[in-house]
Amino acid sequence: MQRSCTWIAALILSIAFSATSVAQQKPLSPPGQATVTFADGKTVTIDYSRPSMRSRKIFGGLVPYDQVWRTGANAATSLKTGVDLNIGGTKVAAGSYTLYTIPGTSTWQLIINKQTGQWGTHYDQGQDLARIPMNLTQRPAGLELFTISFEKTGGDSAILKLEWENTIASVVVKEQK
């Protein structure tokens, strides 16, 4: 009886240490967040996951050209805005959305999708609010971690940037007044 109790206690401790070890491991694609606050205090936030290059060819390789990409990793990339926006000339009402992109060799499209809360690969084109052309430029040096950022250009405007590998895709975001 004492042997079985000792064995059970050892098993429980082993499971507990294994669970703790797994919980402490960093995810391969850690979470990221990009936020911009306009002059009136209203904010726009993008939550996403940040995959790494890890010596892989990204665009035209891991991320195929001319196909919908979840724009990050893991859960779908979310856009939350407390203010109406004008993104690349398209009106986007305040609310929550999912962002996807279609990377191309010379042009990209930003997809603003009305469906939210899904895993990153569950894309429903029928829920698209808009497909917006993005500007495409090259980075002077490669970027290991996928990064989304806002670069403020005024009190009510910013440039949304998606950067990874040697690519920068960008679009102007303005507070709709």
Strand-helix topology:
Elements: H1 2-24, E1 31-37, E2 43-49, E3 77-81, E4 85-87, E5 90-92, E6 95-102, E7 108-113, E8 128-154, E9 157-175
Antiparallel strand pairs: 1-2, 2-3, 3-6, 4-5, 4-9, 6-7, 7-8, 8-9
Notable features of this structure?
single chain, 177 residues, mainly beta, 9 strands, 48% strand
Q: Per DSSP, what share of the residues sits in E-state strands of 2 or more residues?
A: over 45%
Number of strands: 9
Average pLDDT over all residues: 89
* Largest beta-sheet characterization: 9 strands, antiparallel
Q: Assign the structural class, choosing from mainly alpha, mainly beta, alpha/beta, alpha+beta, or little secondary structure.
A: mainly beta
Order of strands across the widest beta sheet?
Answer: 1-2-3-6-7-8-9-4-5
How would the global form be characterised?
globular
Low-confidence stretches: 16-23
Number of domains: 1
- Terminal Cα span: 76 Å
Approximately how much helix is present in the residues?
10-25%
Instruction: State the order of secondary-structure elements, H for helix, E for strand.
Output: HEEEEEEEEE
What is the number of helices?
1
The Rg value, from CA coordinates, equals 21 Å
